[in-house]
Amino acid sequence: MGILLQFCGLSGAGKTTLANTLAEKWRKNGRKVMVMDGDDYRQSLCKDLGFSKADRLENVRRIKEEARRISAEYDLVLLSIINPFEEGRKLVFSKEEMELVWIKCGLSTLRERDTKGLYFKAQLPDGHPDKIYNLTGVNDAFEVPEQAELVIETDVFSLEESVECLNRYLEGKELKKKRH
Q1: What is the pTM of this model?
Q2: CB 47: neighbour CB atoms within 10 A?
Q3: Considering only CA atoms, which of 15, 75, 23 is closest in space to residue 41?
């Protein structure tokens, strides 16, 4: 079974960018890597779900089950999902099978980046036809992870520094795995 690692954090924090960049680095070294992006799974496996707490927890559960199912085929499976509730993190992720990395970024930086225009839409006046009412971390809950194995601050570190930190962390996990 490959290493399973979940990146959680707010929209635009860099979860998918980090996952894809790390995956490319590992692939260049001959390893099989799968990146599972929560946005993609919202359009397929989880397209019947909304954004209630129950639906968000079910979304995470489904993605986790898919990751477990395919993990034997890969050296590394990276999940890039918001997973906003500590309850969801504790329910579906245990350190023994999948570790948590919090991709942390301040709201001011996220508003500046706003790659999808979500933060702008969340700040529109109530009643505006384009207003988003359920943006995690703005007008919907995001609970700070209590048990993250690693915290990557993407508003402090560059992409290269963040990927290098993740790579060192994963190399340490591989060494431990080989010793057992």
Answers
A1: 0.88
A2: 8
A3: 15
